[in-house]
Design a protein that fits this description.
Elements (H helix, E strand, L loop, with lengths): L4 H10 L6 H4 L5 H6 L4 E6 L1 H6 L1 H10 L2 E4 L5 H4 L9 H12 L3 E9 L5 H6 L5 H16 L5 E6 L16 H6 L2 H13 L4 E6 L7 H19 L6 E4 L2 E3 L7 H13 L3 E10 L7 H19 L5 E6 L9 H4 L21 H12 L7
Parallel strand pairs: 1-2, 1-9, 2-3, 3-4, 4-5, 5-6, 6-8, 7-8, 8-9
Helix pairs in contact: 9-11, 13-14, 14-16
């Protein structure tokens, strides 16, 4: 039996997945600052860290109203062989969230990465739609009513690939074309009508030309999807930022959010972190630069009432992908997240809290 969105959200609240304000008000975590203006704060988590790091678990309980799976809901984890689904890690995160009063984000279905070897070898024009639809059906049937959001499609835009509409020339695109999005979103809406269906993209933040082209492509895509009644409900803006970058124009961000909202699409900041690999100086200097970039960004984004929440890609500096992908020249670990590696609140934490405190209330209609 398929649940209506109202029935599922009611069930999620009854199950304790969305903490009531009275429970959250017992502490001053970021979730409380967000809830005060009708928004949510959350963080992506690695289920293996959750299992082993009790300090991190305690901080997640204090700070977060929502958790997102880093890897446990991706194809390569959930669907390791053609007829095999492995829900062990995903189910563990769902249980952890339920036990601790957190809602959840699912990530992701249609992506050019995270594809198991069998999938890349098997896909062809004759079977791509059936395999994609079957995967979405299996996963959403398993988790129906448990996810507040799903990233149905992730990083489908890449203007440098020179495809019509700015599409990334991925394997999915080569086989299905732009119709891949119609297929994925319609399947997701069919198999879980309770979750917010999200298009998740990066590189939308700065004023330089590559980001301008991405914003234009995303707006064109969203307009096209809405005109065809494809059920995209939210745009996820990843917000992988860089401390010290001056080309962050708040007016451009405000206008972009307004343009997205005018299409009837909500906005979620989905993967916020701020790398400091180009900032020299001591830790206070680096932390101040990270906090400043966070403030500039969120002050502009949260001016838009259709931005419903903020999710950081991790909560503590104890673990971040940036140390591998964007190492500092001095070899020191980066400090891109709200808590340091000892779980102390950093200037970035205060920047996020202040941005929530200062923002107008979100429009949840």
């Amino acid at each position: 039996m398929k649940l209506t969105r109202r029935e599922a959200i009611g069930g999620i609240a009854a199950a304790g997945l969305i903490p009531p304000l009275s429970a959250a008000a017992a502490d001053d975590g970021l979730r409380v600052h967000a809830t005060a203006n009708n928004r949510f704060y959350g963080a992506a988590v690695d289920i293996h860290s959750v299992r082993t790091n009790h300090g991190l678990m305690n901080c997640e309980n204090t700070e977060c109203a929502l958790l997102g799976g880093e890897d446990c809901f991706k194809w390569v984890t959930l669907h390791p062989a053609p007829n095999v689904y492995n829900y062990k890690d995903g189910d563990a995160l769902v249980k952890y969230a339920g036990d601790n009063g957190k809602s959840l984000r699912g990530h992701t279905f249609l992506w050019y990465k995270g594809m198991p070897g069998w999938l890349t070898k098997t896909l062809n024009r004759g079977n791509a739609e059936q395999i994609l639809t079957s995967h979405i059906e299996n996963v959403l049937t398993h988790y129906q009513g448990r996810m507040l959001h799903w990233d149905v499609a992730n990083e489908v835009i890449e203007p440098d690939d020179n495809q019509p509409g700015g599409f990334r020339n991925s394997q999915w695109y080569q086989l299905l074309g732009p119709q891949m999005l119609d297929i994925a979103f319609q399947a997701a809406a069919t198999y879980d009508p309770t979750t917010t269906l999200t298009l998740n993209e990066y590189g939308l933040d700065y004023s330089w030309d590559p980001h301008k082209r991405r914003r234009e492509a995303v707006l064109e895509l969203l307009s096209s999807l809405k005109s065809r009644n494809v059920p995209v409900q939210a745009l996820g803006i990843q917000a992988h930022l860089e401390a010290g970058v001056r080309e962050l124009d708040q007016n451009i961000l405000r206008q972009f959010c307004s343009d997205v909202a005018s299409l009837g699409v909500k906005i979620i900041v989905t993967e916020l972190d701020v790398r400091d690999n180009r900032i020299t100086g001591d830790i206070p200097t680096r932390d101040a630069a990270v906090a400043d970039q966070t403030s500039q960004y969120l002050d502009a984004m949260l001016d838009c009432p259709d931005v419903t929440g903020v999710v950081t890609w991790g909560l503590s500096d104890i673990r971040t992908w940036l140390n591998k992908d964007y190492p500092r020249p001095d070899g020191l670990p980066q400090r891109p997240l709200p808590l340091d590696d000892q779980f102390n609140r950093k200037p970035m934490w205060h920047a996020i809290a202040q941005a929530f405190d200062s923002a107008p209330a979100a429009n949840l209609a």
